[in-house]
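The protein record passed on for reference:
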Amino acid sequence: MQSMNMQPLTGKELEYIVDSISNEELLLKQCAATAASIQQPAIQQACLQFARTHEHHLNLLFNALQQHQQLAPMQPQQ
């Protein structure tokens, strides 16, 4: 997915990514907590699968940030 023509992320794009990371972290925690408190194995497994999905989303978001890190300006934009 790396491209020679990658552009630095805009401030708005960074805000969206940060919000998405926060949301995915919350969903991951909620799914894990629900799985720990559920007695029915099928529902527990579904919650654990949802938690893995949110963990995967987090990894994708962090990877996107890392790919753009070299393009980020060293000083804040005015």
Notes: The radius of gyration is 17 Å. The mean pLDDT is 88.
